[in-house]
Amino acid sequence: MFDRQIHSCEDARRLARRRLPRMVFDYMDGAAGEGFGEKQNRRVMQDIRLQPAVLVNVEHRSLAVSVFDHQSHRPFGVTPMGMCNLACPGADLMLARQAARFQSPVGVSTVASTPLETMIETAEGHAWFQFYFSGDGRVVNRLIDRAQVAGYRTLVVTLDVAEVGRRPRELRRGFKMPFRIGVPQFIDFALHPGWSMSTLVNGRPEMANFGGPHGEFDRTETRARADWDDLDRIRQQWKGNLVVKGVLNTSDAIRLKAAGVDAIQVSSHGGRQLDAAPYPILALREIRAAVGNDYPLFFDSGIRGGEDVLKAYAMGANFVFLGRSMLYSLAAGGQSGLQKMWDIFSDEISIGMAQLGMTSLQQRPQALLPRHTGYDRVAATGSADG
To answer: Which pLDDT value is given to residue 196?
Structure first.
């Protein structure tokens, strides 16, 4: 079984690259521009150091974290990702079942391959619905109404896609949704028969929340007209928790807090939107200082292991969301691959906590940045002893 070959995120990525057609892998793995911003964010993440502590009784450690009004059994969830079923048939439902098992939130993308109603039922309520602004405001309103009727309690509004980022790796492979098959794509699929046959048998992934009475979705549609008035209307329409995703600017964060947004998800969209964007992990520290210690901040982008999760908590996150690592593991080994990656993150976090003298994530790790990065010692938002 491929899951036995997974011991890290990079193992899963390597196996996913082997199994997936290049068109699909480059869609999943690619970033804006030439990917410099994504690589640099990973480098900054790697440069962050965590301060160990010794002779602390850490025999009993808890990975549970409170998110809004419920307890997640793990300090991480799954960020909204479109067309997850490209990784393997049924990937969306595998993520939802994992969310139900650990009571950890799974983001359900506007462009999920599985209807939003099915996702929250499978996740046993532990699903958050994410949507993009649309040129047709009626489509947005219908989606929000559908989510409320389906029982969603948290809405995630992604704001960093005014225009879809230009991703050369996708363009070179001719990635389109729905697929447009030419000679290069036919050869690509033929060279990856395992994926191609399973996709043929199960049916190609579609945008399950659209079509017929639910309207249409154009992945490349401009959303440049969206403004603060649109956000105000959504705040009035949505009665549950409202999260805004894709924030890297402290001024925006302060204004979003004042506008009644319940939490901010600091994110660079995994480096897929703006190659020259600020480093999200450092933006998280700055936004935490700007909004104060009590305001909920979530984080995604560049998380590839359990110690990265601890670094995000050290920088001020209240919860962390995983993205590509989950897709790699699904592509590599399906449900068993996903479980293996979930266990790897859990083990690395628990072991890291033991090294840092922590028994729970209510005690924030203490982080440092080497001076050669251009930043002095990070002002810790907490310490290993609380």
So the answer is: 86
